[in-house]
Design a protein that fits this description.
The protein is mainly alpha-helical. The chain is 51% helix and 3% strand. The strands form 3 sheets. A two-stranded antiparallel ribbon has the order 1-2.
């Protein structure tokens, strides 16, 4: 016992004074001369903020008992440790590397989606068959023919029902038979498109695309936009928080997204959570704004990501301004205020649909995403619906990357699937043009720097973004 105490005292004696003890292990601290600092949201984030607190390696003692030195461990960078924190229980076994490439998220659920679609279709046909056999009306001694019994009467009965305001209550009151019959309306071609409108879902044979249900899905997403609106100038109920502070926070979240390599869905969902919370809660103190932002990103990452960063990572990225318990407490407050509902749509969901309707290229898609992200930072654009931002962004993207006039770009097919006429989105397009043209003068450069990446086609550096076409839109407005 005395020998172990003596060894421990000798070890602690030779450790640097600035060393830290993490989880019972002694690790060397970062020297200040390396410049590894992390600043808060209202300042600039250092490029070295991606360096993680944890270290790999162990403290090694030399064999010379007179001079014992501690070997400084190497730093982990780029948060590659996020996936390795998951304990699979296979560390003691030899793992054989498969030659098959890893599955994407949509491919990993392909089998479940296919089986679910087949079961749903079979069950719906069985219900319709039983319903037709059990409700054969006899008129003057003659049985009505099956040709008279069309789904039109059933659809009319469903439409005559009074809608339920509460979304959760409507799901509880919806019977299984009704939901299956409603889903089979697409098989019966109940959606009749005008002659000049293209059916963009006609050739979709992949069950993951859910072409059978896609029209009702987007109709429901449009309905959710009306349920969870963001009011214009919603920060009027805040005595301290301003639009400039909100823009600073969102700009910092863009850098956080890049450091953690999060999905664009995660970032856009986090922005929606922040706007909804600040609209619902008044007089939020300035010191709590960064906590709300990092907690919203934490909630969104758990909602969208497969391997979400740990809560310790989110606490560290704030330079330990907030603890783990602070984030958990703020998470409870946000979810309670939002009634535990994160169903408000995001612009990227509509944007993918509109790009498909426009037969756009990947470059059109990346440029439209760039325009949408710039709008999310701008407080004056926060009150527009996600579908409005997506529609205006894809229209401007198609116009800039082709010499087609702006009015001709917005085809009847795009107008039909988006639900907006050109006169409705034209003012939004001109506002976006002004934001894009003046981005170099803005102090919020995170979105611009993000889209200089080659993986995003470097759309922020395209000459069309600063050309005469976008300048003419600004001048005419």
């Amino acid at each position: 016992m005395e020998v172990s105490r003596t060894r421990r005292a000798r070890l602690l004696h030779h450790v640097d004074e600035n060393a830290q003890v993490v989880r019972g292990k002694t690790i060397a601290s970062r020297p200040k001369e390396l410049g590894l600092t992390v600043r808060g949201v209202l300042g600039e984030v250092n490029a070295n903020s991606e360096v993680h607190r944890e270290f790999s390696g162990k403290v090694a003692l030399s064999t010379n008992q007179n001079e014992k030195k501690i070997q400084k461990p190497a730093l982990r960078r780029n948060y590659c440790h996020v996936q390795s924190k998951i304990d699979t229980g296979l560390s003691a076994k030899s793992i054989q590397v498969s030659a098959r490439p890893p599955l994407r998220r949509e491919e990993s659920t392909a089998g479940f989606a296919t089986r679910a679609a087949l079961l749903t279709r079979a069950a719906a046909k069985e219900i319709i068959k039983k319903d037709c056999e059990g409700k054969e009306n006899v008129l003057q001694g003659k049985v009505l023919s099956k040709e008279i019994k069309k789904p039109v009467k059933l659809i009319k009965e469903l439409k005559d029902k009074k809608p339920v305001k509460d979304t959760a209550e409507s799901f509880r009151k919806l019977k299984i038979g009704e939901s299956l019959i409603i889903s089979t309306r697409f098989e019966e071609n109940s959606y009749y498109l005008p002659d000049d409108i293209e059916d963009i879902d006609a050739g979709d044979n992949n069950p993951l695309l859910m072409s059978i249900y896609i029209k009702d899905i987007y109709r429901y997403l449009t309905h959710l936009e009306n349920i969870y609106p963001i009011e214009e100038n919603y920060l009027k109920n805040q005595s301290i928080i301003t639009g400039n502070m909100r823009a600073t926070l969102i700009d910092w979240l863009v850098e956080l997204q890049n450091q953690f390599s999060l999905l664009v869905e995660t970032f856009q969902l986090a922005v929606g959570i922040i706007d909804r919370y600040l609209q619902a809660v008044s007089n939020v103190p300035k010191e709590k704004l960064q906590l709300i932002g990092v907690t919203a990103m934490f909630i969104a990452s758990k909602y969208e990501e497969i391997y979400a960063p740990s809560i310790e990572d989110f606490a560290y990225i704030t330079d330990n301004t907030y603890t783990k318990n602070d984030i958990i407490k703020c998470e409870k407050q946000i979810m309670t205020k939002l009634d535990f509902c994160l169903a408000r749509p995001i612009p990227i969901s509509f944007l993918r649909r509109f790009v498909k309707a426009a037969h756009g290229t990947s470059k059109n898609h990346h440029l439209a995403k760039y325009l949408v992200d710039l709008c999310l930072v701008e407080y004056s654009m926060a009150h527009y619906r996600p579908s409005e931002l997506a529609a205006a962004a894809i229209c401007l993207s198609l116009h800039l990357l082709s010499s087609t006039p702006l009015e001709e770009v917005w085809s009847p097919t795009l107008s039909y699937y988006s639900g907006y006429s050109f006169s409705h989105i034209e003012p939004i397009i001109r506002k976006i043009s002004k934001i894009v043209y003046n981005i170099e003068k803005s102090k919020f450069q995170a979105v611009y720097q993000k889209y200089t990446s080659a993986s995003l086609a470097k759309v922020s550096t395209l000459p069309q973004v600063k050309g005469t076409a976008i300048y003419d839109l600004i001048r005419s407005s």
